[in-house]
Amino acid sequence: MASLAPEPTAVSSTADAPILRLGGVTKRFGGATALDNVDFDLRPGEIHGLIGENGAGKSTLMKILSGVHAPDEGEIALRGEAVRFASPAEAKARGVGMIYQELSCMPQLSIAENVFLGRQPTSGGVVSWKAMRAAAAEQLGSLGLKVDPRAPLGSLSLGSQQMVEIARVVFSGAGIVVLDEPTSALSGPESERLFAAMARLKAQGASLVFISHFLEDVLAVADRITVLKNSRKVATLANAGLTKAKLIELMIGRDADALAESYAATGIDLPPPAAGKTVLSLRGLEAPGSFSDISFDLHAGEILGLFGNLGAGMTEIARALFGQVVPAAGEIALDGKPIRPRTTRESKRLGIAYLSENRRKTIFPRHEVYKNISLAHLDTLLGPVLRPGPEVAIAREQVGRTGVRPANPLLNAGNLSGGNQQKVVLAKWLTKRPKVLILNEPTRGMDVGAKREVLDLVKALKAEGVAILLLSTEPETVLAESDRILVLSRGRITREFAGETVSKDRLMEFA
Amino acid sequence: MAQQVPVGAPVGGQTAQPRSTGSALDWASRNARLLAPLLTFVFLFIFFSLVTDVFLTPQNLQNIVTQIAPIAVAAVGITFVLLCAEIDLSIASIATFTGVLGAFFFVGDAVALGTWGIPVALLIALALGLLNGFLVAYVGIPSFMMTLAMLTIARGLSVYVSEGKPIFDVPPVLKALGSVSSQVLGIPVIGLFALAVLLLGEFVLGYTKFGRYVYMTGANREAAEMSGVDTRRVIMVSLAISAVTAGMTGLLFIGRLSSANPAAGEDVLIFTIAAVVLGGTSLFGGEGGIRNTILGLLIFGILNNGLNLLPNIPITFKQALQGIVLLAALLLNVFALRIERVRARTE
Ligand SMILES: Nc1ncnc2c1ncn2[C@@H]1O[C@H](COP(=O)(O)OP(=O)(O)OP(=O)(O)O)[C@@H](O)[C@H]1O
Ligand SMILES: [Mg+2]
């Protein structure tokens, strides 16, 4: 069925002549400049890393390339020919494919249909479902995803959905493939398989742009790296000899060494277990098909890290605590009293806050930032009559605290960059101090500096006595501030780390 | 915070605030959802004022108000339901049923409640609305199907209760409320009543937590759920509100007509939804509101009335023409919203 995955458009040109060049691109949204006179070029058969802080303009630059936005100034040259794409469809027709930061799949459609969205294989004008399913299964298989292509996409975990989206673009035969933070929803092994697929595409002559906040990954896969800062290009550098600290210096320009420090290799020493008051305790919690025999205690002023790969059941445990899944067996106790929340509202009132990993399920893109933030606390923070004044004032404070840029609570949330949307969602749950704070991938899509700030915020909450459950598929996030760490695999707790030295490798061993 | 530290480079996208100057166009596209129906309204108002002599007379304006007032009340409830991204097809039948019940209890052949029949009839409408809401929100029947079933049930109950015959006696308060001659300062009382319901709706939607929950549930139900909003309850209550306002509409109708006819009132459904959508409230939830509904009602009322007054138009063609003008107004809305969407195109 390989015939359904056309070879990337062959590129025959002299070695270093760019296949694509963006010259002097400027883009403004209203009065704000998102890109200021940016040059960018892509060579045949290269992987080009694109990095920069949240809101630096990475997504906007690539959306100009893929026909989502029109530039206000500047030009695009494809194989030396000036082009202007009026829509993503036009760009696609010219061999430019893009995987967007925000998932753009159709959850109701089947997995196979999503892989072949807009290019179903037909025989005599009729969609050949059988061929499509077989090809989808094969393509996803090569990315390591073994699923029934007839199942609806929405039934997959977020990471698997991301893999499907990747397959759609990667196997479309596009000669230029842009990946905007493709790994932020993936766990380690999946990312590795994606990198392998990217390398295969490159070997076939395709050119790829890889946007990521995981600078190690960028250093590992990219041939050249372009750094954007404050809407401008800082530099395009060959990868050879670059270090993470150097990249951070170019991106942010301060604390480079501190931020580049990685717990992953060296390992950290967990503090000796200090028994605070037990706030939340789970005993033998079970939900068939998701997790079983989950028991642990969470104390006041403690950060308990939960680490596992996708499908380990972490999200389902969080959902059970937040009243979205009623467990089949087992007990949950809050402050010693058994609870059995059946709605999110009930959990919230009990003092449990949950930040979901799926931004599509947390953000209201067409509503103002302040409404996004206040929603969780309307019943407690404000009087019976809503007035924009106090509401905006509260939001402004939270926006400042979490470093949302631009710091304007009146903007629509959808107009913020991906990382800044994530900060808005976080701000919502920080507005009122909860008893138990469950954070599922809280730093997803954030740049190194912002990640550090968020972890500092979490640390401050811990100091105030909040019991924090931190879920992540990224070892760094769990290692950074956790007091204890539980590793999950296939719905069970496989190892508890407490009062000992732990490293990325140790965590992975049990995942 | 990291990004607040100045880093030398001049301000760019990250720190630039949206400019407030030179953005009349920006402002317009931001408010397209209100401006499009407003322009339509102004245009139609001026048009009919110029081409007919009768349109702008106080008498005729009073007529318009009396005509749209009952619809306006049901429109408030429908606005809640559409903002939640649901639909209620049962409003016309519930209106008729409530009207029939009001008269039935008043006449008292079987159950004599006198004027107390009015609140009892409204309570029955509320019960039907809660049933709609419960089965939609908690059991998971799509609102389109559920309210379609309720449409049939309520219609059947009207016929059953009245034995299929109109009831020609209705509570005097309703007659007084519905008559064109009851006026305060030249404004028909029924219009003031409708205005009061509209303002109450505006208050609830715009200034209470429940109203905010309605908007956010419609905008992104999962995200509302993830913020600890009990979206099922929000949807159930919205459908209940819709049934109660529909019931009030039914009672206003029997007052205006001085009789309750189980076979009447079918067009309330189309009129109400048309008026609300004309006003710019999205059928997909989360956007619009009572201000839009008021504009939609005015457009609808003027159109209905003005086309009757136009000379040289065969009366038989009127309905088709009405549909055509409605279509034009809807196109204008869609067009205006497309401009807004392009501006707000997001990640
Ligand atoms: N549709 C839009 N309307 C208004 N402003 C926008 C829009 N899209 C992006 N912006 C603004 O443009 C700037 C650049 O955003 P962009 O999404 O390109 O950042 P990014 O580098 O991809 O950041 P991240 O790492 O957080 O994804 C931001 O200040 C953002 O708020
Ligand atoms: Mg981005």
TrEMBL record, chain A:
Keywords: ATP-binding, Cell membrane, Membrane, Nucleotide-binding, Repeat, Sugar transport, Translocase, Transport. The keyword Nucleotide-binding applies. SUPFAM superfamilies: P-loop containing nucleoside triphosphate hydrolases. It is a peripheral membrane protein. GO terms for molecular function: ATP binding; ATP hydrolysis activity. Residues 20-255, 274-511 form the ABC transporter domain. It comes from the Bacteria. Transmembrane segments: none annotated. This is Ribose ABC transport system, ATP-binding protein RbsA.
